[in-house]
Amino acid sequence: MKVFLCESIHPKAYEALAQKAEIISDWERAGEVDALLDRILYIGKEQLDKMPNLKVIAVHGTGTDGLDLPEVRRRGIQVVYAPHLNANAVAELAVGLTLALARRIVYARQLIDEGCQGEGMALLNGFDLRGKVFGILGAGEIARRTAAILRDGFGMKPLAWSRSLTPEKAQEWGLEWAPDKETVLKNADVVSLGMPLTDQTRGIIGEAQLALMKPTACLINTARGALVDEEALYRALKEGRIAGAACDVFCKEPPTRENPLFSLPNFVGTPHIGANTDDALYTVGMTCVEQILDVLEGRKPQYPL
């Protein structure tokens, strides 16, 4: 068995894979491989053409927007993934980003570096989370866990909308149901995105949506960069039409300082590290390796897609 791997995975998952298969990371040898473990590569026709013997693709996580699924299906390639196994890690980062914005933590460090005192310290006034509304657009596992932490630990009030969310399901999950996304945008003090990237959700937060938010509100995006019109977000932050934003995902990754968002004191950015905890990487990596071996050895995988 030969498995293509050109991105790092947890060392123990790598070791488990190496015990059963030859690991290949050279594109010149892509034609030899039976399986692909994909973290951040985009896999489309061009890449698939180089792998005529490919039988299975394991997605290192939940999102499948990095695959040309129709083309993969057409070729009869099995896809497996690791749904929700890194949800807690991403949820905890979303909470951390919320706190960073509420207490202006990153900007405070910047002011220390600049030696600012006195009047400059007044720029660090934040806001309490208790009693504030935490808005969710897309009520998936990560969003629900984030809301639960902020509700139970900080006293925030979760207000949620998604296309599939019903009032009954919202009540079961301890969320207040919103009839549309506009209701969330208008009422939330913190708006968090928790939806997959599809043709319907691409650019779902743009000029018009940002204009609905309170001038004191903040936006959190740990889902997919292309959900947000970054130019519109830059203008809203620059002009003070919203108070702050924090993103772990960007339209172009990895992000660089050339992205104008990073020039703003009311913006916090991290380089897609939501799932990067040792615990999550181990669980997701081992699950992907086990499923690759299951498919290649004729067993039913745990999470077929």
- How many alpha or pi helices? 11
Low-confidence stretches: none
Net shape:
globular
Order of helices and strands: EHEEHEHEHHEHEHEHEHEHEEH
Structural class by helix and strand composition:
alpha/beta
Which CATH first-tier class of the largest domain would you pick? Alpha Beta
For the secondary structure, the number of strands is 12
CATH topology of the largest domain: Rossmann fold
Taking the alpha carbons of the first and last residues, their distance comes to 22 Å
Major sheet, described briefly?
A: 7 strands, parallel
Rg, Å, rounded: 21 Å
Q: Indicate how many domains the architecture comprises.
A: 2
Q: How much β-strand is present in the residues?
A: 5-15%
The CATH superfamily of the largest domain bears the name NAD(P)-binding Rossmann-like Domain
Q: Report mean pLDDT, rounded to a whole number.
A: 95
